[in-house]
Design goal:
Shape of chain A: globular
Distance between the termini of chain A: 29 Å
Largest sheet of chain B: 6 strands, parallel
Structural class of chain A: alpha/beta
CATH architecture of chain B: 3-Layer(aba) Sandwich
CATH topology of chain B: Rossmann fold
Number of helices of chain B: 7
Structural class of chain B: alpha/beta
Strand order of the largest sheet of chain B: 2-1-3-4-5-6
Strand content of chain A: 5-15%
Number of strands of chain B: 6
Number of domains of chain A: 1
Radius of gyration of chain A: 18 Å
Number of domains of chain B: 1
Largest sheet of chain A: 7 strands, parallel
Oligomer: heterodimer
Shape of chain B: globular
Order of helices and strands of chain A: EHEHEHEHEHHEHHHE
Helix content of chain A: 40-55%
CATH superfamily of chain B: NAD(P)-binding Rossmann-like Domain
Strand content of chain B: 5-15%
């Protein structure tokens, strides 16, 4: 089987029906990995609240889900704003009567920008941390009553391989993603008695900006791709989104407190 | 009685070296400072958490002048809010901020202060956390989030500053050694049947056994070690 055909969508790999009846809340879902996750969850049968800092950025995702026969609507939710997250979660529950899945994918826009550790300012830290860490807190607190009530709650944080290996020139992002690891391990212990699983996925995916960058820098692309045993970067929907679907389904209902690299074999040091 | 390795005549690992112990608010720092002195180091303690990078540079510079250098820096940061056990849903925004952001910023500032002191001469830094950070603790989400972030920051710094001869490592100690208050937290049992003691039958003593390893990490014997995590909890949690 060629590498290209491995990512081809088929009925058997979309997970259709796996999440029928479930309601999902995905942050940062207007583009990139968040969008891929929202599309995959909807294709698996979940109704999806597609959230972004501005609701308008989520319209395309919602439209595509609708075009494929799924159910979704867009919500404005700056995850760094406690009240905004609570409003958005309640809006999703008001609409569909329940909440089963939360995927906290949002990250600060400049999280991938290189910066020397000696130059990091308090503003640099807080700007990224209010989205990554405060977002975790706000989503968890707003969702808990509903996840507990549903009986099959899933809380998933999008981590990063940077948080596992500690990237040299992304110290803030690496530390935040490393912290996510401790967050999910602890929260999994805390929420386990409620029947809620808490996990993190560490993805490696070629988002739209990555593809543009690689097209302009083919030598960098080739060097980077050599790091992946599978020889390619993941696709946001087909590779990362479907892994989230699996984790949210009953198939992986016994998995909790884990950090799962979904990265083509990039990071294997666990 | 546990015998420290410096009690052997030729084992003063840090003879002539200067060490700074910056663990504001954590009594563990005092014990480690005593242990490093036993290894021959001139040790200065920094007991005030910096509120800015400039604060940290000033404190580290002052300590380095007093000690005669900054060959080894031992650091930990956890505010009282980070050490308080409570369910995540009960945390206010202010408590969360005080627990994770103030603690992380203190570590960030201290590491930047270390960089100013070591980037021309090289040196070693050891960041200390609770070993249970590797497995998570119910009721301590902020502390464990913080501790894993600090451990990852050590890796980033090790990769970035290695070219300056700077080595950074992380040491995880038994939770009750890190902060006495954690003995009352809902620490997870090890995945062994029954309530067995740690593999070594005890949680290593900070002043002797933990300080011995930190002294080694600060010595020439560890010149090839950087970005590593060491659990010194007697064998409770073993990294896969």
């Amino acid at each position: 089987m060629s590498r290209t055909s491995q990512t081809t969508t088929t009925t058997t790999t979309t997970g259709a029906g796996l999440l029928d009846g479930r309601v999902a809340f995905v942050t940062g879902a207007g583009a990139g990995i968040g969008r891929g996750i929202a599309l995959a969850l909807a294709a698996a049968g979940a109704r999806v609240a597609v959230t972004g800092r501005r609701a308008s950025t989520c319209d395309d995702t919602v439209a595509q889900i609708a075009a494929e026969g799924g159910t979704a609507f867009a919500l404005e939710a700056d995850v760094g704003d406690r009240a905004a997250v609570h409003r958005a979660v309640e809006a999703a529950v008001d609409r569909w009567g329940r909440l089963d899945i939360v995927v906290q994918n949002a990250n600060a826009g400049d999280s991938a920008h290189p910066i020397a550790l000696e130059d990091v300012s308090e503003e640099d830290w807080l700007r990224q941390a209010r989205v990554a860490w405060d977002g975790n807190l706000h989503c968890a607190q707003a969702a808990l009553p509903h996840l507990r009530a549903g009986g099959c709650g899933r809380f998933i944080v999008l981590g990063s391989a940077f948080g596992l290996h500690g990237a040299a020139m992304n110290p803030v992002y690496s530390a935040l993603k490393g912290g996510d690891r401790g967050f999910v391990k602890s929260l999994a212990r805390e929420w386990g008695p409620h029947g809620i699983s808490v996990n993190a996925i560490e993805p490696a995916a070629a988002t739209e900006p990555t593809q543009v960058f690689f097209a302009q820098n083919p030598a960098v692309r080739d060097a980077y791709l050599r790091l992946f045993p599978l020889g390619r970067m993941g696709a946001p929907r087909e590779d990362i989104g479907r892994a989230v679907v699996a984790l949210c389904s009953d198939l992986m209902g016994y998995v909790s407190g884990q950090n799962l690299p979904v990265d083509g074999g990039l990071y294997t040091a666990l | 009685m546990v015998q420290g390795i410096a009690q052997h005549a030729d084992a003063a690992l840090l003879a002539g070296r200067c060490a700074i112990v910056a663990m504001p608010g954590l009594p563990l720092g005092r014990a480690l400072a005593r242990g490093l002195r036993r290894h021959g180091a001139r040790v200065v303690e920094v007991n005030v958490a910096p509120s800015s990078c400039a604060d940290a540079e000033k404190a580290m510079g002052h300590a380095a002048r007093e000690a005669g250098g900054a060959d080894l820096v031992v650091h930990a940061a956890a505010t009282p809010a980070a050490l308080a056990a409570r369910p995540l849903e009960a945390l206010s925004g202010e408590q969360w901020h005080a627990a994770v952001h103030r603690s992380m910023l203190a570590s960030l500032y201290f590491l930047q202060g270390v960089y100013r002191e070591q980037h021309e001469t090289g040196g070693a830094t050891v960041l200390v956390g609770p070993s249970v950070a590797l497995v998570g603790v119910a009721g301590l989400v902020p502390l464990i989030t913080l501790a894993e972030a600090q451990r990852t920051l050590v890796k980033s710094a090790a990769r970035q500053w290695g070219r300056h001869g700077m080595r950074l490592n992380w040491v995880g100690v038994g939770a009750q050694r890190y902060a006495a208050s954690l003995a009352g937290a809902a620490l997870p049992p090890t995945p062994e049947l029954g309530p067995p003691p740690p593999a070594l039958g005890r949680v290593p003593d900070a002043e002797v056994e933990v300080a011995d390893v930190i002294a080694w990490l600060g010595s020439d014997g560890a010149r090839g070690v950087t970005g590593a995590s060491f659990n010194l909890d007697g064998g409770d949690w073993m990294v896969p």
